[in-house]
Amino acid sequence: MANFERSAAYFRLVRPHWTIASTLAVMIGILQAWAEGYSNLLLAALVVGAAFIQHAVMEVWDELKDYSHYRQDVYADAAQPPTLFSGGSGVLTGRLLTVPQVWRFFYTLLGIYVVVLGGIIAFSGWRFLLCVAAGMFFMFGYNSLLKLSYVGLGEFSNFAGFGPILVCSAYLAMRMDATSGDPGAGSWNLLAYVSATVLVQSLILGTVWFGSLHIQEMLDYDEDKAGDKKTLVVRFGKTYASRVPFVTALVILGLAVWLITVDPAFAFVLPGVLLNVVETAQFMSRWQDEDYFMRKMKSFFIYRNFVLISLGLVVSAAFRDLPQAAGTAALVTLFALTALTSVPALSFLAKSRVFTFARAA
Questions:
Q1: CB 60 within 8 A of CB 106
Q2: Any transmembrane segments, and where (predicted)?
Q3: N or C: which terminal CB in the chain sees fewer CB atoms within 10 Å?
């Protein structure tokens, strides 16, 4: 029983219901590469695994950092709704694990990550480390080493880290695969590999996060201002912040329309995109109603919309003209991998009743 509880604590520590932010992003990049004829199921599995582990490393690092600042008194306040990546897992504050145990787990995850990364490099070459370096820069620079969030760059860090970096890194790993037969596979000019279609998809995901972070920072406005954390919301105010999600929703709609002109199958993304437009428009007009604001914060509506938009992009791949060189079984396995990595997040969203749209509104 004790071993089960300890295992459950480690599982809780990595907060798997948020890892879909990384795994769905890389699946979109993988599927776009697949659609362009660059298919390798083992490499795709390694990339998804690396994204999951990297996100887990970020969560464990944040847990250790938050605990070192003794912030459990903030998280214990039930009146404050949690935001997407703040609040910690509660594993250390709840004394489910000790600090040395969490540090050992952190180093174990890093070791596994290095092994998986070695597998990717075996296929894609050392150039892929440029993508890893970019991802690490934003992951550890956001709130830790460089404190980008303290100098007004946190929103752009979220945009780049959860959008272009993740999506395009997965896409590039597939494109740079030495077995792909690409005559330019040895070039270090990684930008030359990126197609317009995958870039637009990455911009959609990044723009969702850019808008969502403004909403989260509205909740933290007083604390951030007192702590001299110069977020864009602190600099320009809550009224500005309330408008940004709607503006970004319109940008996302425009990008989605462009994708549909490229391939009508991308129309599967429209329900999530249009829902995001409607809800952010309502938020812009009603955010000053405190009850409404707190209800929307607790509803995780932006995260839900991110999941719906991402799943729309993933599902669209099933209706596109995918090359069959890798075989039907490989394609089915790829979609099964997507479904498997999505279970924790979808379960969490269902339990939180965020798909009950009337309640969230």
A1: yes
A2: 16-35, 41-61, 102-120, 126-144, 156-174, 190-210, 240-259, 265-281, 301-319, 325-349
A3: N
